[in-house]
Specification:
The complex is a heterodimer of chains A (324) and B (371). Chain A is an alpha/beta fold and 324 residues long. A 5-stranded mixed beta sheet of chain A has the order 9-11-10-13-14, sandwiched between helices. In chain A, strands 5-7-6-12 form a 4-stranded mixed beta sheet. Chain A contains 12 helices and 14 strands. The radius of gyration of chain B is 22 Å and the shape is globular. In chain B, strand 2, helix 6 and strand 3 form a beta-alpha-beta unit. Chain B contains 13 helices and 7 strands. Chain B has a single domain, classed as Thiamin diphosphate (ThDP)-binding fold, Pyr/PP domains (Rossmann fold). Chain B is of the alpha/beta class and 371 residues long. The chains are: A alpha/beta (324), B alpha/beta (371). Chains A and B meet through helix 3, strand 14, helix 11 and helix 12 of A and loops of B.
Chain lengths: 324, 371
């Protein structure tokens, strides 16, 4: 076991998968010599060579398309897009092509690619460097969407994504890149795609969240009265959703709060809320509550914490839902 | 490794800049000093955590904006990428508004909502910095389309050119190639100025860009005339070459492409370990420093400046920049209850703000009995 940050855990997963499988190739802007914009790929080019850790020109559409082309030929490509906002130029290749090949070719051509993308706010960055676009990609058939909230999960989920035969987008919450450490096994292990984690068990109310918001929810729960028993679910995989874990929990508790950084309207909270009312209607004792960002752009840093649903807002929503 | 190219053998007495009065060139020097001093303070404020997020400073590249803007009129639109403080200041933005923007204060040029990468100055026709590399290049074509349309179709305004700045890293984004083809096919009066500082973040130009020693080949593919300025740290050299080029683009309402070789002294952003270059390389460019170069020309060639004058100029500019920092420090932060959602649309919509209908807690829709 080693005590690692999220960045180190991801680096370890990449190292071990590259060692185990010669068909794993990393490509992106400054991923090699510079070790990546957040230093996630530090040391990998020295270790595996510049033919496997490839510094590309600054060209997101080109990077994504090339990574898809590699994967169509069986190379397990891992493109890095430096910030979630930079997915914009790559959107066509990813959504209109990469996500669709299995379906378009009826299984003859597949895309075993894992796109790594730092995501979310909380680091004082402006728009395009702080956004949470996961719902857009969850709304894209053919893409698996992952977002870890801890170093342990990050390593296991990334290994699963790299080994998965379909295109995965692996969102890395930059706010917690180096925020805390966790014991991470040195051996390889996987955390299954599509399986949520019950972070804390409880009986009165269910909170569903993912990514860096998991930490805010834990902090919120610490501030609540001890006799309020909250069950916290970290989705880990955003698509495909672990419907069973959510439904089982809400059928037990009868109350549900969903928390995410992304704007409210058409966010993933809407999807989860709909699922809960479809599957848990007769168990519900309160309307599902959403604690989210607002329908506006991620503001520059002075208002960042006013936009983000920080722990006090989550606690407020939990209290209101529990008191209903 | 790139190599510094000194301004060699250029006859300073025959270029277009030689015809300009002393005051104009003294004004250029002051602009160079203003940008340099402003950036020094910017770095300090960033280190003090008064400026958030990502911050890209312009030290070393100052001559680019001063030399090219001198060939424009105020109505010519300007658009650029995220290393944009110099463009804002050279275009006439109040240093106070520029600094306050980075501090995220309401007195900033975009009410403190854009930050370092998004300097906009509509009255001075600066259409902003852009945080996505090369995003500004098709927009630059659009600005040029508009001025051409106004002049030729609506019969309004004079013949204008748009200057679209990009870094050498932006050469490889698809957007630029779409934009240059549009500009070429429609003969749009936009000049793409590559601020070629040799590095796309940490990637040296020859590692990431084909034909890096002959960038004009890229423009040739789109039928666009180009200009290469090797001594791009010398503001007079830039002006001498750029002015006739820009005049032709204005007169004929056609596009242009400029490979302008310059150098940035600092890292790509404030958090760049700069493993990709040596201190010696940086030092070799600092010997060509734009301020020292122009200062030398004004003292030695024109005799219109003394060391004492220069020191007085620095002192005056430093006071202005100190004032800008103080102004930014003392300005109010935006009120999230109104500013979070203002200016998303003409009229704020529900769900966009903590003061709108979407709330949770005591004032929300969870009151039992609500329809």
């Amino acid at each position: 076991m080693a005590n690692l940050t999220l960045v180190q855990a991801i680096n370890l997963a990449l190292t071990q998968e590259m060692e185990a499988d010669d068909s794993v190739v990393i490509l992106g802007e400054d991923v090699g010599l510079n070790g990546g914009v957040f230093r996630v790929t530090e040391g990998l080019q020295q270790r595996f060579g510049d033919h496997r850790v490839v510094d590309t020109p600054l060209a997101e559409s080109g990077i994504m398309g090339t990574a898809i082309g590699l994967a169509m030929n069986g190379i397990k490509s891992i493109p890095e897009i430096q910030f979630e906002g930079f997915l914009g130029p790559a959107y066509d290749q990813l959504v209109n092509h990469g996500a669709r090949y299995r379906s378009r070719t009826r299984g003859a051509v597949t895309v075993p690619m894992t796109v790594r993308v730092p995501v979310g706010g909380g680091i004082h960055a402006p728009e395009l460097h702080s956004d949470s676009p996961e719902a857009i990609y969850a709304h894209t058939p053919g893409l698996k969407v992952l977002m870890p909230s801890s170093p342990y999960d990050a390593k296991g989920m990334l290994i699963s994504a790299i080994r998965d035969p379909d295109p995965c987008i692996f969102f890395e919450p930059k706010r917690i890149y180096r925020a805390f450490r966790e014991e991470v096994p040195e051996d390889e292990y996987t955390v299954p795609i599509g399986k949520a984690k019950i972070v804390e068990e409880g009986s009165d109310l269910t909170v569903v969240t993912w990514g860096a918001m998991t930490i805010q929810c834990i902090n919120a729960m610490d501030s609540l009265p001890e006799d309020l028993s909250v069950e916290l679910i970290d989705l880990r995989t955003i698509y495909p959703l672990d419907v069973d874990t959510i439904v089982e929990s809400v059928q037990k508790t009868g109350r549900c709060v969903v928390a995410h950084e992304a704007p409210l309207t058409a966010g993933l909270g809407a999807e989860i809320s709909a699922l809960v009312q479809e599957r848990c209607f007769l168990h519900l004792e309160a309307p599902v509550q959403r604690v989210t960002g607002f329908d506006t752009f991620m503001p520059y840093y002075k208002m960042e914490l006013d936009y983000l649903p920080e722990a006090p807002r989550v606690a407020e929503a939990i209290t209101a839902c529990a008191a209903y | 490794m790139t190599t510094a190219t000194a301004s060699k053998g250029r006859d300073r007495k025959t270029g277009a800049s030689a015809m300009l009065p002393d005051d104009t060139l003294l004004g250029w020097l002051r602009d160079l000093v203003l940008i340099r001093e402003f950036e020094i303070r910017t770095m300090q404020a960033y280190s003090n955590a008064q400026i958030g997020g990502f911050c890209h400073v312009y030290n070393g590249q100052e001559a680019v904006v001063v030399g090219t803007f001198a060939a424009t009129i105020k109505d010519d639109p300007i658009i650029t990428a995220y290393r944009d403080h110099g463009h804002a200041l050279a275009r006439g933005m109040d240093p106070k508004a520029c600094m306050a923007e980075m501090f995220g204060k309401t007195t900033g040029c975009a009410k403190g909502k854009g930050g370092s990468m998004h300097m906009f100055d509509r009255p001075n026709n600066l259409f902003g910095g852009h945080g996505i590399v090369s995003a500004q290049t098709p927009l630059g074509a659009g600005l040029a389309f508009a001025t051409k349309y106004e002049n030729e179709v609506l019969g309004e305004g004079e013949k204008r050119i748009s200057l679209c700045f990009l870094g050498d890293g932006a050469l490889n984004q698809g957007a630029l190639h779409e934009a240059m083809n549009l500009a070429g096919i429609f003969s749009l009066p936009v000049i793409y100025i590559v601020e070629n500082n040799g590095y796309s973040m940490g990637t040296a130009i020859h590692r990431g860009t084909t034909m890096s020693d002959k960038l004009e080949a890229k423009a040739a593919a789109y039928g666009i005339e180009s200009l290469t300025i090797e001594d791009g740290m010398d503001v007079c050299a830039i002006y001498d070459k750029f002015k006739p080029f820009a005049d032709a683009c204005r007169r004929d309402q056609k596009p242009g492409f400029v490979d302008l070789k310059t150098y940035r002294y600092q890292g790509h952003s404030m958090s760049d370990p700069q493993k990709y270059r040596s201190k010696d390389e940086v030092g070799s460019y600092q010997e060509l420093d734009p301020i020292l170069t122009l200062k030398g020309q004004l003292i030695e060639d024109r005799g219109c400046l003394t060391e004492e004058d220069f020191k007085a100029m620095q002192k005056e500019v430093r006071a202005i920049v100190r004032e800008a920092v103080k102004f930014a420090e003392n300005s109010p932060s935006p009120d999230p209850r109104t500013e979070l959602y203002s200016d998303v649309f003409t009229d704020p919509l529900p769900n966009s703000s903590p003061s709108g209908p979407y709330t949770h807690g005591e004032a929300n829709h969870l009151t039992r009995g609500d329809a």
